[in-house]
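TL;DR need structure tokens for one chain.
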Amino acid sequence: MKKIYQQIQDYLEYCAGVRGMSPVTLRTKAYVLNDFVSEVGLRDFKKINNRIFDKWIMAKVNSGIMPSSVNMYGSVVLAAIKYHAQFGMRLNFNYGLVTRQKWKRGERKFYTVNEIKAAIGYADAETALQIRIMFETGMRIAELAELRLKNFDGQRICFIGKGRKFREVYLKKETEEEIRDFVFKSGTNDYLWGGGTINGEPPTVNTIRNRMKRCFRAAGLEGFYPHALRHSFATNLQLNGASVAEIKEMIGHSNIATTERYLHGFDGRLEELFLKYN
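>> reply
TL;DR here they are.
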């Protein structure tokens, strides 16, 4: 194994064993780090410098990736650099020179029901389901990628989401039936999306994102990014009369200062709210 890949493996083992990071986080880190060293031709973390890092970041910006994703990619690489520095590696890298990409006004977007249907019209069965699940539940793409059959109970999906929070969301009956049909045809018996992958492992977040992006582009909807489906979920609820408190509960926001005042009385009512606004 080349030195750089052993260094990546050491860092990932630290993240898993010491930091207790989730499998989806580890897969994301592995993908980003391997992309980084491949793109810049790095063979040893000792050779990293700000010029190499900045050149890679700008390549991501110029490729059309959303600023939030670019910042995420950069954070993954910086965390690996800091890990090696903390464990004694001498590096010629100045963290103070690193800048984050900024959002421009109007970049955040949402899609209407008709636009979602148009994009789905260009999708295969798996990608169509992924788009529908995100739009109907407000689920994050990392949460979507990790879905397993054990998470499903009819129209209800229970899972551990961002921040290790328990989440409970609901699907439309039609979507639930399509998932049952998909599972039967794909032969998957663990990860929902693992039927056609090596060792049954789910596809990466990046793979799912790119497949969705192609569908939205084909429908004439440029600039797609997965989190827009989460915004679309919330906006659709609002257009159908849901209150801010109800939306925050259904989407699983963790802003305590805002949500604590409204959580009382919601226990056991998520299915009721779903049926009311869908």
